[in-house]
Amino acid sequence: MSKDKKRKKNNFKVVDSKRSRVDYPRKDHQEEYAAEVAPPVGTSVQHSRSVEREVDDASTGRIAGYVGLGIGIASLFMWSVILGPIAAVIGFYAYSQDRKTLGAWSMVLGILATISYFVLIPFAR
């Protein structure tokens, strides 16, 4: 059988050889799939809530940083085994909320107070 007879038998449409791509198996349809992936046209984005949340997050991180710093300083003088880890945890939270300096100081003071407790307690008893 020749090629033309095979094409007629299978009902394939003869495609111009200049084209490089043919959508298989629908050779006579050319479809566009971008509309299925794109977001719906009627969507709207509300920016007012995101700005309020950013302001709240910034103030939360700042407050946590100052509280952690205060607890870290207090842990150097009293209850260092209790207040030290608390200052370190609050400092880590402040650090994760983009208050890097306050968070780092709180963590360092809390860890320093806790380690100094375990190093110096044998000499106190």
Output the keywords.
125 residues, 5 helices, elongated, mainly alpha
What does this protein structure show overall?
The protein has 125 residues and is mainly α. Helix content is 66%, strand content 0%. It has helices at residues 3-10, 34-37, 48-75, 80-96, 100-124. α3 runs antiparallel to α4 (80-96) and α3 (48-75) packs parallel to α5 (100-124). The longest helix has 28 residues, at 48-75. It is elongated, with a radius of gyration of 34 Å. The model has no long low-confidence stretch (mean pLDDT 75).
Sketch the topology as an H/E string, one letter per element.
Answer: HHHHH
The major beta sheet can be summarized as:
none
Q: Show unreliable segments.
A: none
Q: Rg from C-alpha positions?
A: 34 Å
Please work out how many helical segments DSSP would assign. 5
The overall strand count is: 0
**Chain-averaged pLDDT:** 75
Question: In percent terms, what proportion of residues is strand?
Answer: under 5%
For the record, give the distance between the C-alpha atoms at the N and C termini, rounded to a whole number.
105 Å
Helix content: 55-70%
Quick synopsis:
The chain is mostly helical and 125 residues long.
